[in-house]
Amino acid sequence: MDKVLGSGLTLRQAALTVGFAYLLNPVPYAEFGVFPKLVAAGNAAQTVANISANHGLFLVAILCYLVNFIEDIIIAWALYFLLAPVNKSLSLLAALFRLMYTTIALGGMFNLVTVYRMLTTPAYLAEFGQNQLNAQVDLLIHTFRYDYAASICAIFSIHLLLVGYLIIRSRYIPWWLGAIVVVDGLAWIVSNLQPFLYPNADLGYIMIAFFGELVLMLWLLIFGWRMKEPITTA
Predict the structure, then answer these.
(1) Three-state SS at 228
(2) What angle do CA 170, 173, 175 make, to 5 degrees?
């Protein structure tokens, strides 16, 4: 009797789940549409003024990150089923690394929630004074960015390396797609280590490597529905 992988997702279901979760990720809007408008680099007072005048927009950014981290959990779950036929143990490890990254980044996101509460509660301004309030907000925003970047560099990049390796070893996803994901993971490591190891290096060219997950998403959405299920013989 033929049967598909365990009692979880089929390959087709897993591929499309991963593809659509990536497609619906709202973080690019927060990163490139909202934060540049609200956060003034090196100017805490202006950042506070911007957020105070645009509470709703800042809240939208927080919601975008929250949705992204929920989708990361879904992607970790679906990728496990997608890559388990290659190596179940490594696929589980890759999923755990993504969940670990998500946990750290989600914890960092609550710094933004604290910023929102501080700037929508007048008592904090009276308690801290404007200068101290500005400093607190600046610290909390940077703490979120540091936690986010550190979790990507130290943990999420390892997840990508494992996923890329499993794709290369698979026979139902093109090996070159795995190679692109591996390069993506290495690029995240190199990019996030720049401020500490080579702050003056020009890494503009490395941005192209970050499109690895985009290529993976497109392939899964276009070809995922054609994937054949892994067959075992009872």
Answers:
(1) coil
(2) 75
Task: Give the per-residue pLDDT at 230.
Answer: 60
φ/ψ (deg, to 5) at 3: -150, 150
Q: Kindly tell me the sign of the dihedral angle through the C-alpha atoms of 181, 186, 189, 193.
A: negative
Radius of gyration of the chain (CA): 20
Q: Rounded to whole angstroms, how far apart are CA atoms 15 and 216?
A: 10
Residue 83's nearest CA partner among 165, 161, 16, 176 is 165
- Dmax (CA) for the chain in angstroms is 73
C-alpha–C-alpha distance, residues 146 and 75, integer Å: 23
Q: Is the pLDDT of residue 84 over 50?
A: yes
Is the predicted pLDDT of residue 6 greater than 60, yes or no?
no
| pLDDT of 233 above 60 | no
Cα atoms in the 13 Å half-sphere on the side-chain side of 97: 20
Domain definitions of the chain by residue range:
2-233
Three-class secondary structure of residue 233 per DSSP: strand
Asked if 220 and 14 count as a contact pair (C-beta separation under 8 A), the reply is: no
Averaged pLDDT score across all residues of the chain: 90
- 39 φ/ψ angles, rounded to the nearest 5 degrees: -100, 115
pLDDT band at 227 (very low <50, low <70, confident <90, very high): confident
